[in-house]
Structure formats: C-alpha cells, structure tokens
Amino acid sequence: MKTVEPPVSPQRPPEYPLRRRLLGIMLIIGGLGWLLFELVSRGSIAGFDLQLARENSAQTLPVQRFAVSRVEVTGVNDQVTLSATDGEEVILRGERRGFGWAANAAAAAAAQITIEVEQRGDTLFVHVRRQPQIMWYFGRDPYASLELSLPRDVTFNVELVSGDVTLRQIEASGTITTVSGDVVADRTSGQLTVNTTGGDIELRDHRGGLKVVTIGGDTDVNGQFTDLDIQAIDGDVTLQGSFNTAVIGTVSGRVAVEATEASRLTISTTSGDVRFTGQPAAERQEIETIAGNVELVLREPLDTQMTFTTVSGRINIPSELSALSANSRSFTATFGQGRTVLKTNTTSGDITLRLYK
Question: Are the C-beta atoms of residues 47 and 133 closer than 8 Å to each other?
Fold first, then answer.
C-alpha cells in the first residue's frame, strides 16, 4: 500500500517575520505620534475635551463699516451675532479663535480661519473659510466669532453648519438656516424665518411675523406676533403671547400654547399632546390630533361655540357641564352668544376641558 505524505508548506524566507514585526512597530509609533500631536496641539480627541489644550488665541479683526441694505453670512462651526445700531451703516466686528497646548499652536489653529468680506452693490457677503482637513482630524476646531450691527430695516440671510446664531434687539427681517446649531433671539422685531435641523429655537419678546421649520429641535417663543407658522418634526413647541393668525403642526412633538389674545389658531399633531391655556381665539380655533391628548384650560366668561369629537378617546368635562354631554365621544355646547368657534378632534387621544375665572 502506497503511503501519501502530506504536502509540505513552502518555507518563508527568514526575514519575513522580521519585516512584519518592523511594519507593526512603525504603525504603532506612527499612531502614538499622531495621538501625542493631537493631545499637545488640540487637547481633545473625538470631541472630548481632555483639559490639555489650555491655551487659546483670539485674533481680533479690524472693524469695518458698509453702506448696504442686505447682509449674507455663511460659515461652518462659527458663532454669529446680529445686533442693532442707531447708525446708517452695517458694522462688522469679528475674531478668529484657535486652541492648542501652547500659544503658538493656538495661534496657528486660528490662522486656519479666513473671513472673506465682499460688498457687491447693496449686499454685503461674509463667508468664513477654513483650510481643508483630513477626515480623521479630531479635536476642537478653530472658529470665527462674528458680530454684525444692523441698521433698521436691513435684511439678512445667515446659513451655518454646527454654528449658533444670536439676535439682539434688531429691527430687521431675514432668514436663518442652521444644521446642528441653536438660534436665540431677544427683543427683536420684523419678519423672521428660521429653518433648523438638530437645533433649538428660543425667541424672547419678538414683535412681528415668524415662520419656523425645524427637525429634531424644540421651539420656545413668546411675544406679540402678526402671522405665525411653526412646523416641527420630532420637536416640542411652546408659544406664549398674542398673535393674529397662528398655524402650528408637529410630528412626534408636544404643543403648549398660552394665549393672551388671538384671532385665528390652528393646531395639528400626529403623536404629540396639546395644551391650550387662555381665552379662545376671537374668530376660530381648531385643534386636531391623531394619537395625542388635548387639554383645554379656558378662562371664563366664554363666548364660544364648542364642539369636541373623538374616535376612540374619552372626553372629560367639568361636572357642571355633564348634562350637556350626549355621549363620551362627542360634546357640543354654546357659551354666551357663541361669537367664536372652537373645534377639537382626536382619533385616539383624550380631550379634557377645564375652566377658570
């Protein structure tokens, strides 16, 4: 019987394992060197501040003035503030900020930022540009901090990615668009449009019109509004103050409205609860939800035609009104002369009515 010997593996050259070890050592040294450079020059890894980059550099830019009627600002990871001025010119102030272990490293990081300013006709363009970085460049990025003082009625458009916008006492109309950035406004007036993705919106004491489209961010506004339109996906909406006409729509977001005075109000939600407090809108108020509960806390005296309907939810009304309820799925009543209309419809959500003087 013939014996078959197993195949013999080819002999690797003696230097092959050595080359593999050398390659591994070189990769380890390279990785450690890169890590050391990041810690020394930036002080953070993957967005986590390790408290090593204790130096920062703020390079202030010369103040510039422009006679324009519109301002356009674009940037990434930058901070923009719009404030008011009594003068007739737009005033631009700014600084470049960098971070590092040593002062020279922070200054070098700040130098990566270029603020391009150009006036074309009646429009001022401000664009923040930074040197391109490789995809795995971790750490705290340098950024530009800009403040533009706007005369009354100068229009504006601000577009930022991972940057915040602050508005202070301006009397101007414009549009703000952010991705992963917040918008905060205080004592502003004019027609304001805000579009955000992953950023919160907070307006305090705004006077004028407001249009909001937001995804994944909360909206909290108060003031005296003319026309108000808020559309939110996966974000809560809180509204306080007076308004002429308001339309609010949410998907997976709660709505809370506290109205001191209103003409028309429409609220629609998919799976968010609704709470309304105050006097019903003077002309018409409609609330509709699919899987959200509705709570109405109304101030007496009322002058309202009230209609509640639900498919599979419950209707809860004060005990003194129980005689007016025909069944647990609908409720109709007229208070006073019924000059206003209040309609509330739900699919699977409950409707609760509370009265107070």
Answer: no
Distance CA 106, CA 142 (A): 9
* Structure tokens belonging to residue 182: 């917040």
Kindly state whether residues 66 and 173 are assigned to the same domain.
Answer: yes
- Region of poorest pLDDT, from 163-167, 262-266, 353-357: 353-357
Residue 196 and residue 268 in one domain? yes
Assign 326 a pLDDT band (cuts: 50, 70, 90).
Answer: low
Radius of gyration of the chain (CA): 30
Domain co-membership, 192 together with 103: no
- Residues 282-296 as b or e (16 or more Cβ within 10 Å = b): eebbbbbbbebbbbb
Inter-residue contact 181 to 158 (CB < 8 Å): no
Summarised one tens digit per residue, pLDDT across range 122-134 is 999 999 998 775 4
According to DSSP, the residues that pair with 39 across neighbouring strands are none
Give me the DSSP letters along 188-217: -BS-EEEEEES--EEEEEEEEEEEEEEES-
Q: Are residues 120 and 210 in the same domain?
A: no
Residue 256 domain-assigned (yes or no): yes
Instruction: Give yes or no for a cis peptide into 301 (omega within 30° of 0).
Output: yes
* 296 occurs within a structural domain: no
Q: What is the DSSP letter of 8?
A: P
With contact defined as beta carbons under 8 Å apart, do 170 and 82 qualify?
Answer: yes
Q: How many domains, the chain?
A: 2
**pLDDT band at residue 7 under the 50/70/90 scheme:** low
In this predicted structure, what is the pLDDT of residue 134? 43
Domain that holds residue 60: 46-131+140-181
The contacts of residue 104 (CB under 8 Å, 6+ apart) are: none
Kindly tell me if the per-residue pLDDT of 51 is higher than 60: no
- For the segment 64-122, what is each residue's pLDDT rounded down to a tens digit? 999 999 999 999 999 999 999 999 999 999 999 888 777 777 788 888 899 999 999 99
Mean pLDDT (the chain, rounded): 87
Do 148 and 203 have their domain in common?
no
Parallel/antiparallel/unpaired status of strands 183-186 and 113-120: unpaired
State whether 206 and 176 are in the same domain.
no
Instruction: Indicate if 229 and 154 belong to the same structural domain.
Output: no
- Contact between 187 and 203 under an 8 Å Cβ cutoff? The reply is no
